[in-house]
Fold these 2 entries.
Entry 1:
Amino acid sequence: MIEVQNIQKSFGAHEVLKGIDAQFEQGKTNLIIGQSGSGKTVFLKCLVGLHEPDNGAILFNDRNTAQLDQKERQLLRQEIGMVFQGSALFDSLTVEENVMFPLNMFTRMGPGEKKDRVDFCLNRVKLEGANKKYPAEISGGMMKRVAIARSIAMNPKYLFCDEPNSGLDPQTAVVIDNLVREITQEYGITTVINTHDMNSVMEIGDHIIFLKNGLKAWEGDRHEIIRSDQPDITEFVFTSELFKSIRKAQRSG
Amino acid sequence: MKRAFQKPGRSREYGKALAREIDYLGLDSVAIVGIISLFVGAVVTIQTALNLDDPFIPAYYIAIATRESIVLEFSPTMVSLILAGKVGSNIASTLGTMRVSEQIDALEVMGVNSASYLVMPKVLASMLFNPVLIMLSMGLGLLGGYIAGNLTGVISTPDYLLGIQLGFKPFYITYALTKTVVFAFLITSISAYCGYTVKGGAVEVGTSSTRAVVSSSVAVIVANYFLTQILLGT
């Protein structure tokens, strides 16, 4: 479980996070939604340690990140997997080498063991036969799958995804969503996803946090969000005619 | 900058990265360094011959002048400036692209010291391999002078061979290689800094690449003055 206590973050005079409390439970897909500029990305970067919060605490299973020394922090990071918005694959390495990279850096596995683990991860994301290809030679959806395979290579306890569906067609987006949810449940990972995609909210939102102007404006799950009458939520989620009609249908039973 | 020179986590992976950088930054520069050195050696010989067109000056002086120009200045300094353009822009644009495409963030999230993993092998590769390039440049520069002397007839083979050996001071090689190692450090660390700290997108990556070449070239020129003063000054 990840516990966030009153985290605040400013860049100069611009206050981005104004004190957010949250709990992200193991085995659940936790979604962070909000408009552009609401602080979602900064919040996620604080969680993974790319930004240092000005105030507050982040606890990974009771380990306060602010109190960890460099070595402990490095060990914690090995328990974290992350899927970046643009996949962030190393473009000088093949698909196989990308997935193998964390194993090379942090484990003492033999070449055969590493190859087996890579094949397992690539099979898990349903990506066979692309081992020797470079990121520039595969599609956006395949790149996201490789990024997921790389993020689970080390058996992470925590998985973070920044806009995993951005730039993908609706069909591929659903495949990625389902994959993340399956992996989360199968391995009991604590998953936190930053998203704009309302399909993801409706499909995999076990726990949803809505951020507005650097504050937590709403919290609930995918069933509660449909029933919510809070103006901020209504304005943000039910903007399109499609979602308005879904809501109407749900309410009329 | 301090993080870039911290102790590496997994020596074997850093060794592989070092070998890769020696290939990218060093071996890939052999052709350009070779061609330029060969032709500059030839030109220096011809120009020196034209300027020493006096029957009272022995012909082997042409070879001495060629040798001193190449060993003392052309190979260590001018070739380093060429490498500042080639290697410096390569390093800055590679690291800049990795920064804006979040590849550096991906390394950090994994727990890899990205500065050390990406920068240290580049700096070490250049400091180890540039002296090899400079020795090659010296050899090919002198060979270029020999070929040009023969083809144009400005200096005979015995005179040329006598000239390049006469009064040779081995310390000049030490001086040239010392300069080369310092220049290699300056070029790679300045360029890596420019690339690693990029913020923005494609335009900023291009700007950082230009900044890397300009800054490292200026640093080489300024350091050249001080090193010459320290190592050769009386």
Entry 2:
Amino acid sequence: MNFLDRLGKWVLNAVAEAGDFAILCWTALRSIFKRPFDIRNLFKQLERIGVDSMPVVLLTALFTGMVIALQTYSGFKRFQAQSMVGALVGVSLTRELAPVLAGLMVSGRIASAIAAEIGTMRVTEQVDALEVMGVDPVQYLFVPRILSGTIMMPLLVGIADVIGIYGGFFLLVNVFGENPDMYLNKVYQYTDVHDVTSGLIKAAVFGFIIAMVGCFKGLRTEGGAEGVGNATTSAVVMASLLILVLDFFLSKLMF
Amino acid sequence: MIELKNIHKSFGSKHVLNGINLHIVKGESFIILGGSGTGKSVMLKHIIGLMKPDKGRVFIDGKDVTDYTREQWFDIRRRFGMSFQEAALFDFMNVFENVAFPIRRHTRSTEMEIKKRVGYCLDIVGLSGNELLMPAELSGGMRRRAGFARSIALNPEVLLFDEPTTGLDPVMTDQIDNVINDLRRGLDVTCVTITHDMVSAFDIADRMVMLHEGEIVFTGTPDDVMKSRLPIIRSFLKGRICEEKTQ
């Protein structure tokens, strides 16, 4: 009975949190179209979420492209199919690996930072101060962040696609001495425009989720420094899990 | 101007407010006294709509605002200025930007007008020349005065102060009390102050209420407080006598 009691409480809390998250998403989406538009804050967040995340995302893409090429080359070579490495790198990166891995890297970097920032504002009454001044915290704090996440993630993933493909190219051509034209021809031949656009759509959704989860967890922060720490950790966990779950459903929807 | 009728508020099984009734008149300096954890801040949050009562009604200028939406409250709050216990300055903005923030959000003032208004507000609280400092570079008293400056930036009709002198030394407490009195006289606003500091309360009050275990146990002028025989009032006054002896 005790176990069932706790399980019931956990389920109720989870459902309540999911409901709160959905309502806050809707409120934030509506707030995008409300005046005043805070362009200065938007550009600051574009830089922070997009430009500052570029090194970590590009390094991830470069080594992911190289490791796929490395693993598939040794496997494909056993049945003389090494020419197909380019096709596999191109399709797997654009459809899946670039958006998902970039999403996970950015969630570790940005969801935590947003949750810590808004969480600190919450526990030091800065969010209450916004409310008291007649400024909607959702509009002022959420909108620039979710817009930046949604705009910058596809751009990051687009660049990551190119870097990852050329990572594989570099390894095959310079380490294994394969024909450079063959690799790139297979990439172009097997990677459709739809593969690229579906990856970019996923990236936009992941960008929204990362920023939204960071804001949501930050706004619900309670207590002092410990509360901010908990919000930061749970923001990364929730954003990462949502990325993996949504990736499945988006893939099912688009392919 | 502000009226609370039979306000009840609980958090879980803990009853914080048990049937609060009070009426704050326009232009007066109203003090809410009480020890820690008696529900003073919760009461203030009901006045400004940051919390909704479980039972009871809140009236502002005779209008029942209890069930107002967040958007309706945003409009009402533009008439209020609130100064928080730890000032709640935005830590990513300097003093100038903090004070300019409500002006930028709610008016179409030019940069020149904003600069003039911010300069005026900082001058009133004695912080001229500190515009470029970040909140982390300010002392406790300076931070609170910067918070006062931000709260008067839009010429509010009502100023709310949440424990403005807690944790400050007696000299700084006196300075803050003077600033509150100057603001009240200079700007002709209604002031509602939460405090458990009797020295401050006597310095700035027209009328006081004492909150104890979620209920108002006393209402009156500072003179009424001095004459009161209520044990809770006497113990607060005793605290005052002790402080005077130590100064």
